[in-house]
Amino acid sequence: NTMEITLDGPRTVVAVNGVKVTDYTEGQPVPARKFSFEPQRGPRPSEGYFGLQNHGKNDVVFFKEVSIRPLKKQP
Predict the structure, then answer these.
(1) 43 partner at 20 to 30 Å CA-CA among 9, 10, 16, 26?
(2) What CA–CA distance (Å, rounded) separates 38 from 41?
(3) 23 neighbors 13 (Cβ within 8 angstroms)
(4) 3-state class percentages of the chain: helix first, strand second, coil last, to nearest 5
(5) Sign of CA dihedral 42, 50, 19, 11
(6) Which residues are 25's β-sheet partners?
(7) Structure-derived torsion over alpha carbons of residues 50, 4, 45, 70, reported in degrees to the nearest 10
(8) What residues does each domain of the chain span?
(9) What span, in angstroms and rounded, lies between the C-alpha atoms of 55 and 50?
């Protein structure tokens, strides 16, 4: 599987195998938590780090060819 995450200012777009699965712009209403184990949601930082994780207790996950590249400037 291939996941592409695009962070462009307040907008986050996620595609898995070329299919868009998330398109979120900061400032839109944040969905309420459904489960107590979900984190409290708040404003997202404009810079910093990113993390990759898996929630399956017995799952084994490998991340391969992780890269970061700057977005092309729009004219």
Answers:
(1) 16
(2) 9
(3) yes
(4) 0, 30, 70
(5) positive
(6) 11
(7) 90
(8) 1-29
(9) 16
What is the per-residue pLDDT across 8-63, written as a single tens digit (0 to 9) for each? 888 889 999 999 999 988 877 777 888 888 887 776 666 777 778 788 889 888 88
Q: What are phi and psi of 5, to 5 degrees?
A: -115, 125
pTM over 0.70: no
Start-to-end Cα distance in the chain: 32
Q: Any idea which residue has 């810079």 for tokens?
A: 47
For residue 2, CA distances in Å to 6, 17, 40, 68 come to 13, 5, 28, 14
